[in-house]
Amino acid sequence: MMENQNVPHLVLIPPPFHGHMTPMLQLATILHSKGFSITIAHTHFNSPNPSNYPNFNFLPFFDGLSDTQITSKNFIDIASTLSTNCVTPLKETLIHHMAKLEKLDEKIACIIYDGFFHFIDSLTKELKLPSIVFRTTSATNFLTYHVCAHLQTKGYLPLQDSKSLDLVPELELLRFKDLPIFGLTNPHDFLHSTSKTLSITPLAVIFNTVDGLEDSSLNDLQHLYNVNLFPIGPLHMIANEFDNISILREKDNCISWLNNKPRKSVLYVSLGSIASWEEKELTEMACGLVKSRQNFLWVIRPETVTDVSAWLESLSEDVKLGVVERGCVVKWAPQSEVLAHEAVGGFWSHCGWNSTLESLCEGVPIICQPYFGDQRVNARLLSHVWKVGLEWCNVMERNEIEKVVRRLMVNQEGEVLRKRAIELKHEIRLSLSGSSCDALDGLVKFILSLEG
Ligand code: UDX
């Protein structure tokens, strides 16, 4: 599209992962509505579809990923390759863009980049461009980076298993086992990249969060960082863009299936866009879900099982029949729409931050099954702090699954969580015209002040 003259230019740089790209595009949509010109600089891998965003400019840059890496979909491997491969191509792309704007007597007002791409910090300093970091995880998760660094200097790391249920002295709402360090194959790499993240001194940090949900962590961060913090969320609600933003498109019509189910009778089961189950776990899940005698809408992404129909065929006759009678299995669902559907009464989730926010916004209680990183922190917030999530043993065995599903969908315990979830939903929605709206106004003013 044509450059908009006399409009402040922003360049937003998301990593090519669904859980990061989606909130960045939501932020871009919001900032565009506030009068900024938006350019999205992105890798070729998992690039957004420009035709979904006719108001934005798109600047692809070379990512140097091999075909093997792309097909492997190994998140950690891809992330670390990008941090090395993208430095020069992104720099050249930005220089070219700056030169183009200069010819129009224009300039980039600010770069907004995902904190996951920490290499961009030195790049923007080199190019003398103001920059703001956008973090797609919770503020509390970001706080754990400081805590982990502190624990390391005090000699607590690597953590002993016996300490895992103890509360973290610096952040008592978490136990040691909730720290994002657990479940990583190489915690040393995590600490290494964390120290890089902490050494960044941005002008400001944007969080996709709500002040009322995370005020204590935001206060602690404000104290530690002494930079402008803008808790603007939930972004998907503010952007109000349910349909246009997904990189992956919905192909299965599960909404009409939901339309025929009674109120609050369906458990929605999904692990986000990265984590996946092993086939034997899927079989236990199918048996457990059927044994629970509850309706379920289940997302099984192709990375988990390439041929879902063949896997379903391999189940025993009674389980197969149960899945057909009670279940709807899809490759991808329009999640926000699903969670907002009145037939949905619970969510079995990996507790990714976007899924967490989407569920909170619709008042849907959660069975927490965190896998790695920030998901553990979010699970603890859901179950222990906000009291809308169910912690369980996370053992993928049919009887345990049957029990936990019934705890949420049938028992009084689930009803209490559901009531609390509805209360929290109202509180969050109030923040849209309250704290989040104020933070957004503050961010707009802050960016405009950079130009002066
Ligand atoms: C990961 C981390 O788990 C997350 O905590 C971090 O903040 C971003 O990276 P991901 O595993 O993708 O993200 O989980 P999540 O943050 O929950 O994002 C998944 C997104 O995909 C959600 O917006 C969800 O609505 C969407 N989704 C998922 C669908 O739209 N349909 C599906 O079938 C599954």
Describe the structure.
The protein is globular and about 70 Å long. A 7-stranded parallel beta sheet has the order 3-2-1-4-5-8-9, with helices on both faces. Strands 12-11-10-13-14-15 form a 6-stranded parallel beta sheet, with helices on both faces. It has helices at residues 18-33, 67-72, 75-85, 87-103, 120-126, 139-153, 187-199, 211-225, 235-239, 255-259, 279-292, 308-313, 317-326, 335-340, 353-362, 374-385, 398-409, 412-432, 435-451, and strands at 9-13, 37-43, 57-61, 108-114, 131-135, 167-168, 171-175, 204-207, 228-231, 266-270, 295-299, 327-330, 344-349, 366-368, 389-390. It has 19 helices and 15 strands. Helix 6 (139-153) packs across helix 8 and helix 17 (398-409) packs across helix 18. The model is unreliable at 241-251 (pLDDT under 50). By secondary structure, it is of the alpha/beta class. The longest helix has 21 residues, at 412-432. Bound molecules: uridine-5'-diphosphate-xylopyranose. Uridine-5'-diphosphate-xylopyranose is lined by residues 17-20, 22, 136-137, 246, 270, 272-275, 299, 332-333, 335-336, 352-355, 358, 374-375.
